[in-house]
Amino acid sequence: MTTKTSNVLQTLAELGVSGDAQVPPLFAELRAEFDRDAAAVNDEALWKEFRDAWLGRKSGVLAHITDNWLKPAPPELKRAVGQALNELRAHVEAVVEARRAAVEASAEREATARERVDLSLPGVRRPIGTHHLIQQTFQEIARIFLSLGYTVVEGPEIETPYYNFEALNIPEHHPARDTMDTFYLDLPAGAPPRLLRTHTSPMQIHVMESQQPPVRIIVPGRVYRRDNPDSTHAFAFHQIEGLAVDTDITFCDFKGTVEYFVSQFFGPQVKTRLRSSYFPFTEPSTEVDASCHVCGGSGCRVCKFSGWIELFGAGMVDPAVYGFVNYDAKQLSGFAFGMGVERFAMRKYGISDIQLFFQNDVRFLRQFP
Ligand code: DAH
């Protein structure tokens, strides 16, 4: 910064100035130095130093000149020095102010550049949640049945043995009760027993008790069984129950509905096979198999090299069930089915461990946006 000519500390006499003519060159030299200083000012800190060096009341260059040149000047030089000093002061003040404005403007430009928002940059994506794969599978299955005129109903997870078993034609000591090891609620002695439903089928009874045919419903929901957790068992999982009852529903309607559903869910290339089975609440009962959607039936890991995948249980509603809900078994017929939602999702997406659905590891969940 400014290397103030040391002569500003000297008097005119000491500098050997004795005539008017010597004054302007002296000031011209100062002004040239000032202009060099001014040119170097490029930030606020430098500007303050610069201002104080030239305009500071006690030790600024102009103060020194006033004290050392003007005040002690002999009368014949006073006028010339005073005039030159005024001109220099006017110049210094104007330039100091101009530099202030320039420094401020460039600081502002820099700040603006630093803070500039680049609207062309890709935005920051906030991760948003997705529906759990079980929920997605529910919705996919429901969509197909809704398109066929079915309605979605839901029911209680706490049930009585009557709805969970009896009215579904599963009397006490029936072996079918053993396959659905049941959680009973721990209730005060003498209270009527309650259990966690082992399937969504009890809703068949609730719905038929409360409405007359035609019935066309699906029932999504959580069910509970005393199973030890492993890759295919969980103590809580999800089912979708289906029930269609009317005056003229035949086995063909049943088969057609099942085939339509399977082809909608797995794709038109997938074939359906009905395999005879047993459920107390259907007669005849079937297991619905689909040709393997992965290998097309030639055999692979997913279908365990059988070409077929077991999908769900179903059948024509057993007339005994109508007896429990006061439906006229002579006038009515229908079919029912019960699908495991986890199983569907596992088959469709090649998931080999049912526990993945319950662990809620986001690395798993994120794969199904
Ligand atoms: N409730 C049966 C189960 O949980 C599944 C089932 C099979 C439901 C056949 C039905 C059916 O409605 O007709 O294993």
Key terms:
alpha+beta; BirA Bifunctional Protein, domain 2; two-stranded antiparallel sheet; 14 helices; 9 strands; rod-shaped; binds 3,4-dihydroxyphenylalanine
Task: Give a written overview of the molecule.
- The protein has two domains: 3-115, no CATH class; 134-365, 2-Layer Sandwich (BirA Bifunctional Protein, domain 2), CATH 3.30.930.10.
- Helices cover 43% and strands 17% of the residues.
- It has helices spanning 12-15, 23-40, 44-55, 61-70, 75-115, 133-147, 161-164, 175-179, 202-210, 251-266, 319-324, 341-349, 356-359, 362-365, and strands spanning 151-152, 158-159, 195-196, 215-224, 236-246, 272-279, 282-291, 308-317, 333-340.
- Strands 1-4-5-9-8-7-6 form a seven-stranded mixed beta sheet, with helices on both faces.
- Strand 6 (272-279) and strand 7 (282-291) form a beta hairpin.
- Helix 2 packs antiparallel against helix 3 (44-55) and helix 4 runs antiparallel to helix 5 (75-115).
- The longest helix has 41 residues, at 75-115.
- The protein binds 3,4-dihydroxyphenylalanine.
- 3,4-dihydroxyphenylalanine binds next to strand 8 and strand 9.
Task: Please give the count of helices.
Answer: 14
Class from helix and strand fractions: alpha+beta
Radius of gyration: 47 Å
The bound ligands are: 3,4-dihydroxyphenylalanine
The helix/strand order is HHHHHHEEHHEHEEHEEEHEHHH
Mean pLDDT across the residues is 92
CATH topology of the largest domain: BirA Bifunctional Protein, domain 2
Which percent bin holds the helix content? 40-55%
CATH architecture of the largest domain, by name, is: 2-Layer Sandwich
